[in-house]
Design brief:
3-stranded antiparallel β-sheet; PLAT/LH2_dom_sf; Lipoxygenase-1; single chain; about 15% helix; elongated; lipoprotein lipase activity; alpha+beta; 2 helices
């Protein structure tokens, strides 16, 4: 089910909508789901054996952030407006599925009650039974038929091929007690591609451990090096004395 239809189907009995009884395995990607009064083309409620909610399941990065608000009661007019505004979000579901064929480990879904918990890092890492992959390889999850009504959340990149790998970063500083600046990590792959991510910004102190969850667009299996980068725009004598005591990066069990 690639963003199964929401209007006229949300909240209806299983007889008239997609549900786990319709096939031996029902696999769902929600990409434009929204609750009333916001209008989305997709269904928000779980409706399969595995229900994936990339980026929360409603608004996709790389598309406009607007979700239509109903301005009239005419159903056809509401759907037309939602299609014009939400079409990009709605279409991401099949784009994600296609991308997952080429990136079989780039769309890991984490079991979570809601998206805010994923963003806070509370759903990382995977539980002992593992996590399913959104898209083409979802059927390889051993517990695929045992988690009905469980929502799986993940983040994707804004642009094709959309794959990301969630990593947890710990940085402990040393040297100066306190100063202002930025800490970034730059990931390099073997083809020369780079992606830079901010870990901390503002007042930095050696007394604090900086933790950040990153959804990195560089495949860990293809990572050549990870560069620890200070903000070069800061001029201070203390800056030269500030260093990193430890930098730990966790991906899965590695």
């Amino acid at each position: 089910g690639l963003d199964p239809a929401g209007p006229c189907f949300e909240g209806t009995p299983p007889l008239v909508r997609l549900d786990p009884s319709d096939a031996s395995f029902v696999d769902i990607i929600h990409s434009n789901a929204a609750h009333f009064p916001a209008i989305g083309l997709g269904m928000y409620n779980t409706t399969g054996h595995l229900d994936f909610y990339p980026n929360g399941g409603s608004v996709m990065p790389g598309c406009t952030n607007l979700i239509a608000e109903p301005k009239q009661n005419d159903f056809e007019a509401v759907i037309a407006e939602a299609t014009a505004i939400g079409g990009c979000h709605h279409s991401r579901s099949h784009e994600f599925y296609c991308a997952s064929i080429l990136y079989p480990d780039g769309f890991l879904g984490y079991p979570c009650e809601k998206y805010d918990l994923l963003k806070a890092g509370e759903c990382f890492p995977c539980p002992k039974e593992g996590c399913p992959m959104m898209g083409h390889y979802a059927d390889q999850f051993p517990a695929k038929l045992e988690r009905v009504n469980q929502k799986y959340f993940l983040n994707t990149a804004a642009d094709a091929p959309f794959a990301t790998w969630r990593q947890k970063v710990f940085i402990k500083l040393s040297g100066a007690k306190k100063m202002r600046g930025d800490i970034n990590l730059v990931f390099h792959d073997r083809e020369g591609n780079t992606k830079e991510y901010e870990v901390a910004s503002g007042v930095l102190s050696q007394d604090q451990v900086y933790t950040k969850y990153l959804d990195v667009e560089i495949n860990p299996k293809n990572t050549k090096k990870i560069e620890f980068l200070w903000n070069k725009a800061v001029f201070s004598l203390l800056w030269a004395r500030l260093g990193a005591e430890t930098v730990n990066i966790t991906h899965g069990e590695d």
